[in-house]
Here is the input.
Amino acid sequence: MATNFKKIIDSGWTNFRRNSYLSFAATSIMALVLILFLGLLSLQFLSSQIVASLQEKIDISAYFKADATEEQALKIKSDLSILPEVANVTYISQEQALADFRARHAQDELIQESLEQLDGNPLAASLNIKTKDTSQYAAIAEFLEASALRSVIDKINFYENKGVIERIESISRGIRGWGLIVTLVLVLIAVMVTFNTVRLTIFSQKQEIEIMRLVGASNWHIRGPYLAEGGLYGLFAAVIALAVFYPIAFFASDKIAAFAPGINFFGYFLVGVPQVVVMVVLLGVFLGVVSSAIAIKRHLRI
Amino acid sequence: MIKFQKVKKIYEPHDVVLNDINLEIKPGEFVCLVGMSGAGKSTLLKMLTKEERPTSGNVFIEGVDLADIKDSDIPYLRRKIGTVYQDFKLLSKKNAYENVAFAMEVSGAAAEEIEKDAPQILSIVGLRDKLESFPEQLSGGEKQRLAIARAMIHRPKILLADEPTGNLDLVNSYDVVKLLLKINELGTTVVLASHDTNIVNTIGRRVVSMDKGKIVRDQTHNGRYVI
Here is the structure.
């Protein structure tokens, strides 16, 4: 079995070398397909990262009136935390808010001076709420509206952020939906191009296959080396695609980081090297073998 | 050994290629099948390797009705019959040695067996120095001798030769015929389809003449080329 397998791979490799021109063409096409695949993967990664970082920035806050007590605020906080939609709730007391404000404007002397002039604390205590999903902010706003302690809440800033939240949401839905459709269409085209290239390669050897049948080769005996050859196209294509992709990712990474800070594009693909390599190689070999199998089928009638 | 029984082959709608063929060939015979192009010689030979199937009637080899052989078993049938063609049908991507080795590999021969037998048969047909040559580097006569070596590697009981000299000059043609006669002397049944008068007359064995899909004459001894 093992020696048979080796023999098949060997003769596949011999075919690959002797048909160097066609092998080169098929391998290049498949390499382009795999690069396209890696590109789509990057696009998917970048768009999801951008949407995630935007979503990270969204929250809603409920500001309390000056006469609200801390107990009332904490009561609302504990009511909120048991809701399934809520990721976390932070209570920011008046003092905390003032300290934050001071720290944020530490450089600004005018503001520091103005604060000195004031008797009391001009800032309100607030609850800062993050949900698990941006679509759930409306529900949180409604929950606060209906709360028994609504009277101590001054304002809920959801209504000011509503537009932004909805827009980000629709962008992220769009990216997910259209991204999937575009990816599927491109993958389909890629598979068809690969398949046609391999089919041409095999068609050029129609006569060889015919002769093999005439000297009494069984179908598997004929098919084996062609499948191996297809697999080799995929393997070499994967190596080429990876060799092209990684340097590009390395140089693009800085540009992307400048545009969207906090996204480590190259780092992501570097950490995932084993997975990416295995995935691309498997995809390439699979594409090659399956294309060969389909293409050779019609030449194997007895 | 070989028996055709009321064999008819019709290509739709009504192109009759073979019409009521009855023919029996005994083991060890050397039979020349003669006739003009289109007389049905090739079709008759192709029936024996099941490349063509009769529209009606039966073909037997060693008592087995070929209609009973399943498609998946056809490769085994073909390994038992050697075939030689006018256009050689060599694998152009394989060298002489590999062409012979391939025919052995497909029947599951062990590597040692291939390494021993393939060079041996190639030296029998006079290609000992051409093991590494690819078909395009060989002359017509050498190609045909390579094809015969490949056909004989399984030591088949039957050798079918379809116009093997059609692409060869006189000298090479006689070399090929001598080789076929030698193979026949060693016990293999040979069926040679040819429309070359000189070749057939030189051989002087059984001659079966065909015309328009029918057998019109069967000279069992010292046959001449007549239709």
The longest strand of chain B covers residues 15-25. The helical segments of chain B are 41-48, 74-80, 96-106, 111-124, 140-152, 170-185, 197-203. Chain B has seven helices and ten strands.
